[in-house]
């Protein structure tokens, strides 16, 4: 089961997508969330529909995930014949195919053994944690007899295959700059931000994103100046910074002309890359005189990335043989976490493997 946030495939699906997103306390904690979320979603829908209209009238994330899944199935059958045949399912948190619909389909197909494979390389309670909490909640309802045995791939921020494909995409993009300026291009690694209330709770996301960046720069032999920045802030509460937009403007005001944006926490193209980075931030860069703003290509269905995914799954299956269904990191809750749901989901997955 490939788990991700998802995105509306059509403009008509935007409001439902936003309603689910703003209703999720794991992602965006809002007072009186049950009542406020639908109102916020309705108000934001026209603006977000305009953004999706500019990138093809919908999110391409489902299409990319389907391509990744199909390639992963074939490669897993080749490199792990003893566990074949393999079948990939998709479970999005806020857009179809939703987690509950995927579980229902898996039960119809007679699935007995499944891996919950997060497509967020770096773990956050707001992303992978939310998806796993939803998997637990829906499984309790749809599969109360626990006919499906689950194991979890909850993070892979420094996997060699992931670092290799990020590095290759950066190197390819740097070649589009003239040789004279190539090693002066500023690499801006951009990841989705988190509310500071989540960061201060002890969420490991920011440190794991930083670990990915460091590993990539190490493989690049620290060839270029770089910074880690954060995008997609929503609402008035404090979020992890510096914000990507502010960093671009600040660097432009200091005379930088060439910046390469690297989406370091996203594996597939969606609105945060195609609209926010490519269109919105490109416009901001122009206003401050940046003439060489470019973006490294997303991983999408790059064969190197598919190979990395397959090796992650194969390695996981080897660990499962030794009884390691869950990682020690997943079992450790955030130091200041007060949510019963986080412990209940962990209890569910631990029970499922006793």
TrEMBL record:
Pfam family, one: Ferrochelatase
Task performed by this protein: Catalyzes the ferrous insertion into protoporphyrin IX.
Similarity comment: Belongs to the ferrochelatase family.
Gene Ontology MF, one: ferrochelatase activity
Keywords: Heme biosynthesis, Iron, Lyase, Membrane, Mitochondrion, Mitochondrion inner membrane, Porphyrin biosynthesis
Cross-referenced CDD domains: Ferrochelatase_C, Ferrochelatase_N
Keyword Mitochondrion: yes
Enzyme class: lyase
Organism field: Cetraspora pellucida
Location within or outside the cell: Mitochondrion inner membrane
Chief location category: mitochondrion
An example Gene Ontology biological process: heme biosynthetic process
Domain of life according to the entry: Eukaryota
SUPFAM superfamilies given in the database record: Chelatase (SSF53800)
Protein name per UniProt: Ferrochelatase
Reaction catalysis annotation: heme b + 2 H(+) = protoporphyrin IX + Fe(2+)
NCBIfam families referenced in this protein's UniProt entry, alphabetically: hemH
E.C. code: 4.98.1.1
Gene Ontology terms: cellular component: mitochondrial inner membrane
Keyword Iron: yes
Pathway: Porphyrin-containing compound metabolism; protoheme biosynthesis; protoheme from protoporphyrin-IX: step 1/1
InterPro entries: Ferrochelatase (IPR001015), Ferrochelatase_AS (IPR019772), Ferrochelatase_C (IPR033644), Ferrochelatase_N (IPR033659)
């Amino acid at each position: 089961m490939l788990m991700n946030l998802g995105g509306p495939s059509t403009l008509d699906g935007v409001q439902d997508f936003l309603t689910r997103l703003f209703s999720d306390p794991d992602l965006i904690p809002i007072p009186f969330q049950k009542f406020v979320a639908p109102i916020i979603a309705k108000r934001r829908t026209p603006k977000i529909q305009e953004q999706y209209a500019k990138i093809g009238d919908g999110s391409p994330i489902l299409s990319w995930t389907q391509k990744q899944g199909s390639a992963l199935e074939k490669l897993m059958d080749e490199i792990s014949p003893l566990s074949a045949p393999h079948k990939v399912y998709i479970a999005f948190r806020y857009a179809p195919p939703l987690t509950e619909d995927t579980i229902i389909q898996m039960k119809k197909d007679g699935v007995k053994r499944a891996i919950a494979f997060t497509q967020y390389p770096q773990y956050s309670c707001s992303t992978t944690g939310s998806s796993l909490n939803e998997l637990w909640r829906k499984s309790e309802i749809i599969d109360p007899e626990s006919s499906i045995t689950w194991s979890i791939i909850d993070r892979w921020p420094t996997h060699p295959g992931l670092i290799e494909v990020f590095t290759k995409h950066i190197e390819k993009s740097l070649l589009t700059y003239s040789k004279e300026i190539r090693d002066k291009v500023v690499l801006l690694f951009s990841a989705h931000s988190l509310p500071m209330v989540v960061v201060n709770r002890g969420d490991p996301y920011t440190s794991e994103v930083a670990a990915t960046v460091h590993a990539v720069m190490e493989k690049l032999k620290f060839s270029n100046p770089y910074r880690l920045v954060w995008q997609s802030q929503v609402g008035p509460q404090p979020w992890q910074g510096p914000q990507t937009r502010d960093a671009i403007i600040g660097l432009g005001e200091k005379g930088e002309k060439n910046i390469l944006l690297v989406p370091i926490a996203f594996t597939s193209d969606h609105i945060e890359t195609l609209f926010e980075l490519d269109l919105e931030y490109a416009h901001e860069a122009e206003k401050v005189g940046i003439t060489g703003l470019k973006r490294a290509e997303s991983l999408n269905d790059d064969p190197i990335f598919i190979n990395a995914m397959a090796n992650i799954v194969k390695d996981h299956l080897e660990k499962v043989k030794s009884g390691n269904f869950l990682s020690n990191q997943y079992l450790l809750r955030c130091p200041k976490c007060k949510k019963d749901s986080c412990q209940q989901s962990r209890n569910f997955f631990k029970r499922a493997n006793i």
